[in-house]
Amino acid sequence: MEGTVGSGPEILSDANAWVTAAGAAFTAAGAAAGTAFGHEKLGAAQQARWYAVYTCANHEKRVADQFVSRSVDHFLPQYESVRRWKDRKVRLTLPLFPGYLFVHLAAQERLRVLQVPGVVRLVGFNGSPTPMPEEDLHRIREFLGQGWRAEPHPYLQVGRRARVVRGPLAGMEGIVLRRKNRNRLVISFDLIQRSMAIEIDEPDLAALTS
């Protein structure tokens, strides 16, 4: 047979060169992927989202006032309640979700919130704030802005579930209760473990099957 086969040292040298080149390519690819992941993570931190703010007891309005003075975009859902005080009735405006309000900012700006007196923390997991469903907050803001009534309700997870099919809350889901011959829909938010209740007509609901 004609031709020659390279000597042992030459073969070993070629193999080492190939391994070195492959390792360099793999390292470069890994670095590029890591850089892309880092940029993606940084981009997420720079994107404004809605976050729940947990406050000291009865400090929701004070914190909201501080947010106004510090130009922090926020939302404090409230409802009206009539209380009897001595010989008269008093109409009060109270937080719909006691202990919580919401801010709209980028996660990297959270110190603007955490430095406000009365703020305990941004709600999340493992030390990182978790965004609230933006669509839900927009629906609640529109619902309350149109003058509809809602009130706090004990946190509820089990019951006959239904979806709202009409109105500003269309698309939201909750649990249907009957009270004084009226339907009440209890909408719960797992992240803050709070619920709100609204009165709603049967045609505005669609039953959900488990």
CATH architecture level-2 label of the largest domain:
2-Layer Sandwich
Radius of gyration: 28 Å
The residue fraction in helices comes out at 25-40%
| Tally of individual helices | 4
Task: Explain what the structure shows.
This protein is globular. The chain has helices at residues 8-46, 60-69, 111-114, 134-145, and strands at residues 48-55, 74-75, 78-85, 88-95, 100-106, 119-122, 124-125, 128-129, 151-153, 161-164, 173-179, 182-189, 194-199, 205-207. Helices cover 31% and strands 34% of the residues. By secondary structure, the chain is of the alpha+beta class. A six-stranded antiparallel beta sheet has the order 9-13-12-11-10-14, with no helix packed on it. The chain has a four-stranded antiparallel beta sheet with strand order 2-5-1-6. Residues 1-5 have low confidence and may be disordered. The protein contains four helices and 14 strands. The longest helix has 39 residues, at 8-46. It has three domains: 9-46; 47-132, Alpha-Beta Plaits (2-Layer Sandwich), CATH 3.30.70; 146-210, SH3 type barrels (Roll). The termini are far apart.
